[in-house]
Amino acid sequence: MIVLVQGNEREKYSGLMDQMHQLRARVFKDRLGWAVNVENGRERDRFDDEWTLYVLSVTDDNRVVGCLRVLQTTGPHMLSDVFSDLLPPGELIRSPLVWESTRFCVDTDYAKDRTTNELSRITGELVCGLTETGLAAGLQNVVSVYDLRMERILRRIGCTIDRLGPPKDVGGVMTVAGLFEVSQAACARVHRISGLSAPTVPNEIFARIGLAA
Amino acid sequence: MLKDIFHELANDTTAITSRGEGDAYLARTAKQYGLTNITYLGINIPVVGLEHGVYATTTYSLDWQARYASRDYLKIDPVIRRGLQRIIPLDWADFGKDDRRVAQFFGEAREFGVGNQGLTIPIRGVNGETALFSINRECPDREWLAFRREHMAQFQLMAYYFHDNVLNREGFANDPLTLSDRQKEVLKWAASGKTEWETGTIIGLSARTVKYHLSGAMVCLRAVNKVHAVARAVRLGLI
């Protein structure tokens, strides 16, 4: 199930958040070998601040098995502050209708131990969770920076991604900036292809964050 | 067509050059959307002379403003407590369920003409300033949900544009108004009547990407729709 953690609620969800930072360390540092900052087995950077929104995929026994983080493009974000080279010159994104999603990861060890579809299901759940939240917030797009491996995974589960610039080698990793449309149709497609069986963000979750339908 | 142009001018935040005009804009917009109130509360606005960097402008009645101040409601107002440090807009529907003081606060607000429904859009600026843009409406829940869904994007833009205007008026320079080559390109094709799909075919992008660049151009120009964006771009000599 999806759990949304807003910037001002991080302490309330400190257990889940701690699991998330540990998962990110395992995935981005240990497994993928990226040059990320890990302290005490937890990965975090300056974009994990008081305003960041987190979308977590959590099992019934409260284990974080997938996560992504969301920043507004109207404030500091990775594409503007770190990866601006991935965009053609002058194409900085600053819009209240565009969010940026980064640090997308799934606990592949957990997924491996289960049915072959679990990886797709968790990935799809995160994408739909983000898209449904975006829809409620009036968004038009989500932009993201990811490696080509992630781009393939997302396309396989039904995401329609438009590249915003050519892929470039960033620290030994082929990286690209991509654009997602936030729409019912986009969400439904991922829902169907990744084998999700229920609405991703139940209304109780939206009610808790003050945006019940 | 003429009606559209009038609408655009009425909604044009870039035309606001004073606090009074800002107040008039809020009053006009409230009427246009059938809202009982609109409020802008800027915090940490980095301008000399603003006490605590707070800039507030609202269509709330003077009586309610006075009551709010004299009862020190800033301390219990859940909008301010929960509205900051979040990026998802906040619907007021959840307030008052557990806290008796909060329920009383909203009950009192209604007596002073604040609509039963409310929505707050949090704004976080690049300079560390923050703002809360709130709207209120008097209507049943089902109607409110449909209204909110239909207009959420517009309110997001409105909040962002108004905040930007406040900063500009208070002398705080923002990002210069420049359009990317792509944005200029899609605007020019839109101006000549091409659809997003047609433009995409002509310049080699998907219709989705064209729509994204058009939207980006609109936001950059603080425009409320495509026609407004083209008009502003032409007037500013950008296309």
Characterization of this structure:
The complex is a heterodimer of chains A (213) and B (239). The model of chain A has no long low-confidence stretch (mean pLDDT 91). In chain A, a hairpin with a 5-residue loop joins strand 4 and strand 5. Chain A is globular. In chain A, strands 1, 4, 5, 6, 7, 8, 9 and 10 form an eight-stranded mixed sheet that branches. Chain A has a single domain, classed as 3-Layer(aba) Sandwich (Aminopeptidase). Chain A has helices at residues 14-31, 78-81, 108-112, 118-136, 148-156, 184-193, 203-208; strands spanning 2-5, 38-39, 42-43, 53-58, 64-72, 98-106, 141-147, 162-163, 168-170, 173-181. By secondary structure, chain A is α+β, with helices and mostly antiparallel strands. Chain B has 239 residues and is of the alpha+beta class. Chain B has two domains: 2-169, Transcription factor LuxR-like, autoinducer-binding domain (Beta-Lactamase), CATH 3.30.450.80; 181-235, Arc Repressor Mutant, subunit A, CATH 1.10.10.10. Chain B has ten helices and five strands, in the order H-H-E-E-H-H-E-H-E-E-H-H-H-H-H. Chain B has helices spanning 2-11, 19-33, 62-70, 78-83, 100-111, 141-169, 181-191, 196-203, 207-220, 226-235; strands at 37-43, 55-58, 90-91, 117-124, 130-137. Chain B has a five-stranded antiparallel sheet with strand order 2-1-5-4-3. In chain B, strand 4 (117-124) and strand 5 form a beta hairpin. In chain B, helix 7 crosses helix 9 and helix 8 packs across helix 9. Chain B is globular, with a radius of gyration of 19 Å. The two termini of chain B are 22 Å apart. The mean pLDDT of chain B is 89. Classes of the chains: A alpha+beta (213), B alpha+beta (239). The interface between A and B is large, with 45 and 41 residues.
